[in-house]
């Protein structure tokens, strides 16, 4: 009984846990850690959503088992959101399932469709569940580029020609966690055409559809004509309405895939607490102003992060979407890799970030910085990092000065 179980052996060490342990130890010593690591929104859930939860929770009838695929009103509300936002019409009874967050939705879809040895095409770097949900289900991951474009499409084409067995599915995530890449409808159209040609399932994670900072909102793959023949899309209320602990998300799209997911879920859960689903329905039906407020706050935090970290000697590319910045490790520390650099930031600068290696091997020269602290705290983090980076920057400047004088 000393060997690890088969599925546990398939999972690598959880690298974020190393940073979390250091963070907890530092706080135990009294350090004031500015935590920009986990994407755990600090904004409160809109008051009208909380009020609806309290109202529904007082009804004893709501205390019984709920509906695994989501109560009818919630599924109708999600279908209504898709029609308003994307112009996509969905049948709430056959093309919409409520999930316990998009993460659970992905994991359960993997259980529903994956046979041992099935090949899944997955971006690298990407959100961990995109790969590990399928690994735990017995699948095999083949990495493709994370950035939408010709290289990704060419990688899919190569995989179809050279993978045995042929790939079952391709995972997409735009706006992307962690990279903040955004895809356009032209790219989605090419993916759908490839998927139809080669009979591949497309699983699109659109959890950050409403956290964007440019004028054009990110599209849904289901806006492409015929996409619903091959695609399912996952969304979440965690960031859109600052409801991460409520665990409400959705899978929508292809009827056959939605039915498979619903069947697996019926064996695994009874759905979220009914009052939570009632409150989520109210959010979808009347929360457009709240979405705009959340977006505005993240935009201001992004601007403060980019400006203050840049002045501190840690240039951060401005993300056009999501609540994350994907930042190259400063040159003097890049050789350390993202995990060791992240540990150094906790120990020497009292700042926590997420190591890029946790999102895939091709993320190891980056860290992910979450916009989950207010503007004052972000500036405090920048000051701490400036002090930490100063010796290396001074040494580098001295080398440049010496070489010029020589």
TrEMBL record:
Residue intervals passing through the bilayer: none
Keyword Transferase in record: yes
One Pfam family linked to the record: Aminotran_1_2
EC category: transferase
Enzyme Commission numbers on file: 2.6.1.-
Every Aminotransferase class I/classII large domain range: 32-384
Family that this chain belongs to: Belongs to the class-I pyridoxal-phosphate-dependent aminotransferase family.
Protein name according to UniProt: Aminotransferase
Organism field: Plantimonas leprariae
